[in-house]
Structures are given as structure tokens and as C-alpha cells.
Design a protein that fits this description.
alpha/beta; Rossmann fold
């Protein structure tokens, strides 16, 4: 596989949902993500990609999932089972530890749009591979961005979900599906 060239002035890392509820012991969804996250070495891979992106002067955008607050989904006609379960658990609740980004991935820049920076390539990492990553990446492709997925810089609730995200669905919209090692090599050459 030939890895694309990532230029720092037109590439951005999109880190989705690095919440404690997903990534930390004691998080409301940690027991569901733990097996896959540990298998792919998720936290270290995310840390390394973010560090390499910063060294290469690649912009990093933190993309948050909806944060739960009292009354969410009450008047929705078509809330999904996942949304209802999230509401019952109070997943990613505003003002709570679980609804705060993991200590290694605190928010630095959420106010600017990708196009304001001339971004043409997006690299999607974070959680979950088969839901938020897929939806964000697919929409990015439809908006005209070159999309890269990093299969060991994300996790899901099951092996089947990871397989679907990277081997079935991902190839229909992603321009590249890399490993962390491949991306790190490419970022080290970013100009």
C-alpha cells in the first residue's frame, strides 16, 4: 500500500469522543470498549498520533459526541435504542468526570472550522469505529475531504464491529485505512 503524503497545512487529525466514559477505568462504557481498546493498544496509539501530529504541525480537532443533560431525548419521536440507553446511563453527562475528555486529550481548539484552515485531508481516530468515526468520516468524504481511517487508533464494542468498520464499510468511503505505524511514518514526512 502506498501511503498518501500528508502536508501539515492541509491535513487535520479529528479525535472523536476521547471521553473518560470510553477510555478510562471506571468510565460508564469502559467495560464495553476495554477488550478491543487494550488489544489494539488504543491509548498509546492515540497519544503517539497526537504527539506526532503536533511535531509535524498538523492541526488537531477534538470532535465531541453529544453530552447528556437532563431531559435529553424526552420529546424525540425517533430516539434510537443507543440514545435511550445513553440517556438511562447518563453517558457523557455534562459537568461530570465521564463527560470530560480523557486527561491526555483535553480540548485546545474547537472553535474553528476545518475549511478556515484550508484542510483537505482528515484523519479520523477515537471512538467508536463503527458509529461516530464512520459517520464523521463518511460525511467528510461527502464534503470532499480525503479521508484516512487508522484501524488501531479506534475501538468498538466487538471484533465484528471493528471488522465492519475497517473491512466492509470503511473501504466504501475512506481513501486510506492505515495502522498507527504507517500513519506515524507518513506524519514524520509531513511538510
Amino acid at each position: 500500500m502506498t501511503v498518501a503524503s500528508y502536508r501539515s497545512n492541509s491535513t487535520a487529525i479529528l479525535l472523536l469522543d476521547p471521553y473518560n466514559d470510553f477510555l478510562s477505568e471506571g468510565g460508564k462504557l469502559w467495560e464495553r470498549t476495554k477488550e478491543i481498546a487494550e488489544k489494539v493498544n488504543l491509548l498509546d496509539n492515540l497519544r503517539n498520533i497526537i504527539a506526532d501530529a503536533r511535531k509535524a504541525d498538523v492541526k488537531i480537532f477534538f470532535v465531541p459526541h453529544h453530552r447528556w443533560s437532563e431531559g435529553d431525548y424526552v420529546h424525540w419521536k425517533h430516539a434510537t435504542p443507543y440514545q435511550m440507553a445513553s440517556s438511562g446511563r447518563k453517558t457523557f453527562a455534562k459537568g461530570t468526570w465521564g463527560g470530560t475528555f480523557h486527561d491526555d486529550f483535553q480540548v485546545h481548539d474547537l472553535d474553528h472550522q476545518l475549511k478556515q484552515y484550508g484542510i483537505e485531508r482528515i484523519i479520523c481516530i477515537g471512538l467508536l469505529a463503527n458509529t461516530c468515526i464512520e459517520a464523521t468520516a463518511r460525511f467528510g468524504m461527502e464534503l470532499g475531504y480525503h479521508v484516512t481511517l487508522v484501524k488501531d487508533a479506534t475501538a468498538a464494542f466487538s471484533e465484528e464491529a471493528m471488522h465492519a468498520a475497517h473491512h466492509i464499510d470503511g473501504p466504501t468511503f475512506a481513501h486510506e485505512i492505515l495502522t498507527t505505524a504507517e500513519l506515524r511514518t507518513a506524519l514524520s514526512c509531513a511538510t
